[in-house]
From TrEMBL:
One of its GO terms (biological process) is histidyl-tRNA aminoacylation. The keyword Endoplasmic reticulum does not apply. This is Histidine--tRNA ligase. CDD domains: HisRS-like_core, HisRS_anticodon. Its EC number is 6.1.1.21. It comes from the Bacteria. The lineage of its organism: Bacteria, Candidatus Dojkabacteria. Pfam families: HGTP_anticodon (PF03129), tRNA-synt_His (PF13393). Belongs to the class-II aminoacyl-tRNA synthetase family. Homodimer. SUPFAM superfamilies: Class II aaRS ABD-related, Class II aaRS and biotin synthetases. GO terms for molecular function: ATP binding; histidine-tRNA ligase activity. It comes from Candidatus Dojkabacteria bacterium.
Amino acid sequence: MKRDIQLQTLKGFKDYFADDIKLRDFVRDTFRNLAKEFAFEPLETPALEYSELILGQSGEEAEKLYYRFKDNADRDVMLKYELMTSMCRAVAQNINNITFPYKRYQIQNVWRADNVQRGRLREFTQMDVDILGSSSYIADAEILQFGLEFLERLGFKEYLVRINSREIIQGILEALGIDLSKFEDVYIAIDKLQKIGVEGVKEEMIRKGTEEKDVEKIIDIITTNDIKKLEKLFSNSETGQRGLENITNILKLLNDLGIEEKFVKFDLTLARGLASYTGAVWEYEIVDDNIGSVSGGGRYDKAIEKYTGTEIPATGTSFGLERLTEVLKGRDILKSKLPEKKEVLIIPLDKENVVYATNFAKELRKEGIIANTYPDIKKLKVSLKYANKKGIPWVVIIGENEVKENKVLLKNMEKQEQELFNTKEAINKILE
């Protein structure tokens, strides 16, 4: 009996079929292969974590988006909001078996009850690289270098990474004599600058208790990106000096590595919202598409301390797979980046030819050719129609005569030409 069920996916959740998966695999494989070249090691962590392990790590704004619930044993659990916190837990739990600096990459799904928009879903895939156990700016620069090379390998031409530091923002408040209890409110407001604009940021800071005269000074400083001005300003702020020195070293190293200035931007208006960040922060953007950020990251030196009791410095970045695939869809660069696949549909004309057809399919696969044996014995035009709809370039037709002569009838679907070959000749023709 047919049940009256409305077929639909939950808002923010998506099915992926072959064309989407080919693109997703291309991006994942590019990320994974590059991570291995940089000597990052793979890690996977569970989808569910105890809520107490994650609460307090990402900030109040993030906690509104958690998928948190009680399981059947009445345990307080939640789906991973992001990969970093689970990684910190895993590292702390296995700390005696890990050699530092520990370089890790991870590609897994996460869940956020966020607003749905282009390239942003509620279940999505993050791709992370992190370096744990080093406080050096060299580690930050390597993460930044990795991200820029990743975007280049995907085929993008116009992209950049924007860099700032939480320590610099804190140094601005210290230098201006603003109570540091206002820091989080100021930082969160700056994080919203692209969404609500300068006036909106001013209003939020004032509403949260920062004096208007101080707000004007903060806005004046962060909209200049003047490093020399910051050097003078930080004469009485050790935090600001430390943050500025770190950023300056990172920028110089990236420049010395030959990375063009157009790909790197020091931007005082950048603020990453996660409360776990402690130093340099950054975001990668595709310049020629209105998609926004495709990656964000930074230094989070105190995140693992919650689990270990001792500070383990850490830095890393996270790319969103869906954001990247959304930008890549329909671009010509994809055609040149995806490897061409040789694919064949094998059509046995009657049951007596099935074994011969199946054995030939095995030979094709040994040569790296995708071999799809049509499973039903039907009229030839039905099978050929299937090949056309699937865009399969080659068809092998096997009937009684082909089996007797130990040959196959090879048809080029684009040219609509066919010829009788022995099996070796047919394979060579397909591989041309």
